[in-house]
Each structure stands twice: as structure tokens, then as C-alpha cells.
């Protein structure tokens, strides 16, 4: 049985158990009141039988009738018609009331156990089929996205070749350079989607010098940074992660920071006792850019895959904080 199924079954069984426990407690006090009323009515019946038998009737195995009070027993006192100052006592066998309640709850608990067991089986079948169906849908979606990304990647590769051919024939290459840059950006975005679909077993973790990786990415954006100021003091810092994933994370975060900045991009690395903290901040040049692209959500998924946390704050500045444990 899968771990997900066990979790669902555990919480379902716990919920039913707690609900039945509360119900049984309420039922116990309610039943106790009915049993006490029933015993009183039975005691009164024995009292009347005692009078009608001209005081020869003495009760049965659970009730005793007489004119003497029995200590340490539950007794009901009724007026003696022949003696205004006297009483006739009907004593109840010790634990008689509890035996009635116990017999009732033994039967009830047996029925409840059967009902719970039945519903657990039904619930397990439903959950198992539902999870299997969701798993199939997830695999189908991954295959579809991977197929589309692969075909689109082939298209981009062809366009890059065509672009390279054009660059050898045209003198004014400024427009071609911009087109090439756009193609590379789309290719990076597609790679993020493809890499996100990788399973855990295909992820290769190693110690990566993250400050060098940031400098390498900043060099790719030299043209975009000509009229902007970058504040970054590299300090030798290592993160244990997948090289491809770290490149995707940093490229997308830095790309967004540059794209939506007005004039300043600030990158800082903090080292703590428990891990590494990366802070990316800019002066927000586009206050309407609240979402900053679907890529941000994808990046957050990649960060979580490596046991990290990612927080985004958009006010006067666009700030992203990424934290990795050592």
C-alpha cells in the first residue's frame, strides 16, 4: 500500500474514531438516564407485587423487597399503606444498572467496529483508484509538456541555425542580435520547464560555487545592464545542489530583476550557521508587473525540490529571498 494511501486511511480512521468516541460518551450519559428510569419503574412494579401478594413476594434475582433497608445497595423507599410512618424498600442488585449498559455497549462497539472496518475498505479502494487516476493524469501531462517542449526546442534550434546563416550575409546585425537574444531567452524558459519535469533520480547534486555562477549569468546580460547599476560583491560560497537546476533558478531570478528594474539591481549572499541566503532586489521600474511571469512559480518549485525556501516581496522594490540549508 502506498504511503499516500496510508496517510489518508490513518486520518480517516482517526476522524471516525474520535467522532464515535464523542458520540458514545454522549450516548452513555443519555442511556444511563433511561436505565435509571427503567430500574425505578421496575422497582415500583416489585413494590406493587409485594402489596398485592399480602407481603409474601420477595422479588427476583435482581430486586429484593422488604421492610428493612439494605445498606450498600441502591434502594427505593415507598410508603407503607399499613403504616403511615413506615416504608417498604426495594433494593437493586449491585452493578445491575451497569451490566445493562455494558451489555448494550459491547454490542454497539462490535457493530461500530464492523462499520468502521467496512468503510475503511471502501475508502481505501476509492482513494487508491483516485490517486492512481491522478498519477496517470500527472504522467500524461508531463509527457505532453515534454513533447511540446521538445518540438519547440527543435524549432528554436533550427531558427538559431537560420539566424547564424543570416548573420554571415548581412552587415547590419543589430536586429539579428536582438532576435538571437530573444530566441536564447525563450530557450532558457523552455529548459526550465523541461528540467522541472525531471525525476529525483535524474538530479545530480554537487558542491557549486554560487558566486561564480551569478557572475557568469550577469555577463550574459551585459547589453541589458549598460544603463543600469549592479551592486554585487562576490564571496566564495558553495551550495550542494544540481548544476542545471541552480542555473535555471539564478538565470530566471536575475532575468526578472533586470527586466523590471529602473536603474539598480542589488544581489547579496548571506552565510548563516544553518545555510545560505540569497537576496535579489531592484528599484521597481514597472509597478504593474505583479506576477513577474509564470517562470517565478516554476523557479519556486525547483527551489523546493532542493529543500530550499523562496519568498517574494513586491512593494517599492522587487525582492526575492532564497534560502538553502547546508
Automatic annotation (TrEMBL):
Enzyme Commission number: 2.7.13.3
Q: What membrane topology does the UniProt entry give? A: Multi-pass membrane protein
Subcellular location, in the record's words? Answer: Cell membrane
Catalytic activity of the protein: ATP + protein L-histidine = ADP + protein N-phospho-L-histidine
A cellular component term, taken from the record's GO annotations: plasma membrane
Name of the protein this chain belongs to: histidine kinase
Extract the PANTHER family matched here: SENSOR HISTIDINE KINASE CPXA
Amino acid at each position: 500500500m502506498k504511503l499516500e494511501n496510508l496517510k489518508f486511511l490513518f486520518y480517516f480512521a482517526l476522524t471516525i474514531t474520535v467522532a464515535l468516541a464523542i458520540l458514545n460518551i454522549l450516548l452513555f450519559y443519555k442511556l444511563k438516564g433511561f436505565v435509571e428510569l427503567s430500574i425505578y419503574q421496575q422497582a415500583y412494579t416489585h413494590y406493587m407485587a409485594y402489596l398485592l401478594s399480602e407481603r409474601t413476594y420477595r422479588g427476583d434475582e435482581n430486586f429484593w423487597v422488604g421492610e428493612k433497608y439494605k445498606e450498600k445497595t441502591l434502594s427505593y423507599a415507598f410508603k407503607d399503606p399499613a403504616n403511615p410512618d413506615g416504608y417498604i424498600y426495594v433494593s437493586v442488585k449491585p452493578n445491575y444498572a451497569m451490566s445493562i449498559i455494558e451489555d448494550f455497549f459491547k454490542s454497539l462497539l462490535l457493530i461500530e467496529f464492523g462499520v468502521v472496518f467496512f468503510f475503511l475498505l471502501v475508502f481505501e479502494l476509492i482513494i487508491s483508484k483516485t490517486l492512481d487516476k491522478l498519477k496517470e493524469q500527472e504522467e500524461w501531462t508531463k509527457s505532453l509538456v515534454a513533447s511540446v517542449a521538445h518540438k519547440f526546442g527543435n524549432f528554436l534550434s533550427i531558427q538559431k541555425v537560420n539566424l547564424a546563416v543570416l548573420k554571415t550575409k548581412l552587415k547590419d546585425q543589430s536586429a539579428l542580435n536582438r532576435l538571437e537574444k530573444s530566441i536564447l531567452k525563450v530557450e532558457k524558459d523552455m529548459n526550465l520547464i523541461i528540467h522541472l519535469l525531471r525525476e529525483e533520480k535524474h538530479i545530480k547534486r554537487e558542491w557549486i560555487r554560487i558566486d561564480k555562477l551569478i557572475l557568469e549569468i550577469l555577463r550574459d546580460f551585459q547589453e541589458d545592464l549598460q544603463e543600469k547599476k549592479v551592486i554585487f560583491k562576490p564571496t566564495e560560497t558553495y551550495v550542494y545542489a544540481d548544476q542545471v537546476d541552480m542555473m535555471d533558478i539564478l538565470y530566471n531570478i536575475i532575468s526578472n530583476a533586470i527586466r523590471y528594474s529602473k536603474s539598480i539591481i542589488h544581489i547579496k549572499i548571506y552565510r548563516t550557521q544553518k545555510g545560505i541566503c540569497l537576496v535579489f532586489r531592484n528599484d521597481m521600474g514597472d509597478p504593474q508587473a505583479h506576477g513577474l511571469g509564470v517562470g517565478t512559480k516554476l523557479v519556486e518549485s525547483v527551489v523546493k525540490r532542493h529543500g530550499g525556501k523562496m519568498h517574494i516581496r513586491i512593494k517599492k522594490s522587487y525582492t526575492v529571498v532564497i534560502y538553502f540549508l547546508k
